[in-house]
Write a structure and sequence with these properties.
This protein has 153 residues and is mostly helical. The protein has one domain. Helices cover 75% and strands 0% of the residues. It is built from nine helices and no strands. The chain has helices spanning 6-19, 22-33, 40-47, 53-73, 79-82, 85-98, 102-108, 116-122, 125-152. Helix 4 (53-73) crosses helix 8 (116-122).
């Protein structure tokens, strides 16, 4: 992989600035704290609720990470710089929440390329180890949430 350039750094900063916009901050917060799908149907329900705020937030965050990962997949952005934990950790987290349902989502939505760029990077040699750790964390968080909800019932 070639060394990162000033153009790579500028693109990363632009992508970072885009993440700071007020509405995407709300969307990212919703993904991190509220949206914990337990099935493909949970995701499909939000995807098909056109006009709902959650639908916009889901599409905004998935669109952002799909676009950013496409830059790497197509050689526009340096892979090493993109994989810096301070930049792409959220991508792994988002993907880990959806990944258990991805084959079924692709089938139900008739979209075999859904999250293909994220999947390509996450399962690349550089992404695999990091994904293993983050997906385990997401799995543990999912279990903790389920246990807390069961106790509250």
């Amino acid at each position: 992989m070639p060394q990162a350039t000033h153009a790579d750094a500028e693109l990363i900063l632009k992508l970072y600035d885009a993440r700071r916009e007020a509405e995407i901050r709300k969307a990212r917060h919703w993904w991190a704290t509220t949206f914990w799908p337990e099935s493909a149907d949970d995701v499909v329900k939000v995807m098909r609720s056109i006009g709902a705020q959650e639908n916009a937030w889901l599409r905004q965050v998935l669109g952002y990470w799909s676009m950013a990962s496409s830059f790497v997949s197509h050689g526009v952005l340096n892979e090493d710089l993109f994989f810096e934990p301070s930049f792409s950790g959220e991508m792994f987290f988002i993907y880990a929440k959806i990944e258990p349902f991805l084959p079924e989502l692709r089938e139900k939505l008739q979209n075999p390329l859904l999250l293909a760029n994220l999947e390509k990077l996450i399962h690349s040699p550089k992404g695999q180890e990091r994904y293993k750790v983050i997906s385990k964390n997401v799995e543990n968080l999912r279990k903790t949430r389920a246990e807390s909800m069961a106790k509250a019932s």
